[in-house]
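FIELD: query
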Amino acid sequence: MKYIVVTGGVMSGLGKGITTASIGRILKSRGYSITAVKIDPYLNIDAGTMNPAQHGEVYVLSDGGEVDLDLGNYERFLDIELSSDHNITTGKVYRTVIDRERKGDFLGSTVQIIPHITDEIKASIGRAAGKPVENGTADICMVEVGGTVGDIESMPFLEAVRQMRGELPLQDMALIHVTLVPVDTMGDMKTKPTQHSVKALRELGLAPDIIVARSVRPMGEATKKKISAFCDVRQKAVISAATMPDIYQVPLELEREGLADVLTDHLGLERREADPAWYRTVMKEYTGRVTIGLVSKYGIEDVYISIKEALKHAGRALATEVQIRWIDAEHYTSADLEEVDGIVVPGGFGSRGIEGKIRAITHARENRVPFLGLCFGFQLAVIEYARGVLGIADAASEEFGSGTFVVAILPEQKGIDQLGGTMHLGNYPVMLEPDTLAGRLYGRTDILERHRHRYEVNPQFIPDLEKAGLVFSGHNGVRMEVCEITDHPFFLATQFHPEFNSRPAHPSPPFTGFVTACRERHGNGPQRERRG
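FIELD: result
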């Protein structure tokens, strides 16, 4: 097993996750099997209870793990399935060590950060790295250490990395440090932040083998030479990572910079030619364009990364550029909805913004605008139909307010008093009716999709809803999973989250069908005339 550890300096939000995923991608394109681990220094056990407006999207894995959004990047770039073990948090590590202490596993020793916490960190990395990926154990494990060098929360993890470096053969680990190279008002690229960041890393006993310098434009050789001299890194190992128009082009930029050769030489790996499949997928030219309205109450794009990427995957497969218009669920006008080719109502929790989302669904249903509802969007689509078609004016969900609950809490969720990890989570089978929109999109009747919810369509109202024309085309036993309207260009909503299974080369069927319908509307309807 070879390890590539990625750390960050200067500031957070530099794109360590995309960098880590991109490095894995360029190595996978050379035939190496890759797995990935994300270390999050926060005390939370997982990301499940964290506010998405502060932390970003809660990504759901197939085993039900609620994890950091970077694991979504790993799965999309590497086209693999990861597990909860691939997300290591301070909370998980300390809970494991404390549980062992309570059992007496340490034989009376004083439990300390070193060696007990660092040993558990190393063991956690090893367990995750050794888990089967695709057809066997991976050749290389990417390890991203969250936060920045100097954060007190990251210290035990960086110490564990330092110990691993001393325990492993020299060619079995590469340390990559991602830093910021800002541009001053005169247009000069400044290397001082990188110098200080590397100095802080060295004070912890770690020296980078490769520096990936993030900047708004490509670095020149003079800047690379300066970083090389001050940071004691070979000049060819100073890699420019300029901001790209599309995150999926980052591996191509790192390829041009020669990172693959530097890495394979450092790790003692065979140099191989890259498979051009990734290039062909991400550089496909667009022949059309659509605008999608995403009705959001958070107002932060990071909350909906997987949806944004799934729309992009579908658009690229259809040679259609997808532009997302972010529509505030609490503050929008009818004009905002009239200017889009399709409407997406995503998942979410709580009562804020629900009436605005329901109005958007009504607009889509009545005006024959392509509509895609996801999780909470599925539940709101059912509520909207019960109000607008079935005539239940106070139709609502048991999650918020009073009224007639056409959406009710799952039976197994009643009485639960712990929030973390207790929802209906992860992969569950869904049976699709063959002669339906959902059945045609997937091309099969049995699928496996990821879930994250506590509520369902109230079984008492299903017969009345179906009699009124709402088609439940997917189910898991008595639980409804997909609804659609037959007499509509595209009206589909899923209780599950298909966006979590979307990949650049394998877009999610509901998203592909949705973008197809939006493209048809754009080409045939008033939108085309307005946009010239």
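FIELD: remark
Residues 284-531 form a domain with the Rossmann fold fold (CATH 3.40.50.880).
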